Amino acid sequence: MQVSESGEFVVAKPPEEVVKLLKDPATVARLIPGVSGVRESGGEYVGEALVKLGHLSGKVAVRFKYAEARDDGVVVIGRATGLQTTADFSIAVDTEPRDGGTLVKWRFQGTARGLAASLAPGIVRSALRKIAEDAVKNLAQYLQSK
């Protein structure tokens, strides 16, 4: 089961500042809803996330790393495991100058497999979409406030 989401927004910061914030793993971890206790481990960042799948909720283990860290953006890839499901994800953020600020373009791709993804694909798909939407909302708010 796959989920793809994308979008864009403009912030009143130069692209260099936006990318600098995105290259900070602690910042990225704070933006993903429910993620806590992130620490570095063997070149990756690991933590936990509280996930809701319909009426069920539970903690999943999350691992992520930077696949790309460029001057104009980043690509973060990772895996979440728990609730008898594994989800692989990719979050790409590209920036470009726009009217004295920055146009932020984002793409989220997620693939889930396992018991929950097999038995309730609609619920898992909705949960992945909600996580992506909330993470982007958090990113936009964070960039506006810093």
Q: Give start-end ranges of low-pLDDT stretches.
A: none
Helicity range: 25-40%
Task: Kindly report how far apart the N and C termini lie.
Answer: 36 Å
Q: Number of helical runs? A: 4
Q: From the helix content, strand content and strand pairing, which structural class follows? A: alpha+beta
Bulk shape = globular
CATH topology: Alpha-D-Glucose-1,6-Bisphosphate, Chain A, domain 4
E-strand count:
7
Question: How would you portray this structure in words?
Answer:
With 146 residues, this protein is α+β, with helices and mostly antiparallel strands. It has one domain: Alpha-D-Glucose-1,6-Bisphosphate, Chain A, domain 4, CATH 3.30.530. The chain has helices spanning 15-22, 25-31, 115-119, 121-145, and strands at residues 2-11, 35-41, 44-53, 56-70, 73-82, 85-98, 101-114. The protein has a seven-stranded antiparallel beta sheet. Strand 3 and strand 4 form a beta hairpin. The longest helix is centred in the last third of the chain and has 25 residues, at 121-145. The mean pLDDT is 92.
Summarize the structure.
The protein has 146 residues and is of the alpha+beta class.
Features:
Alpha-D-Glucose-1,6-Bisphosphate, Chain A, domain 4; alpha+beta; globular; single chain; seven-stranded antiparallel sheet; 146 residues
Set out the fold topology.
Layout: E1 2-11, H1 15-22, H2 25-31, E2 35-41, E3 44-53, E4 56-70, E5 73-82, E6 85-98, E7 101-114, H3 115-119, H4 121-145
Antiparallel strand pairs: 1-7, 2-3, 3-4, 4-5, 5-6, 6-7
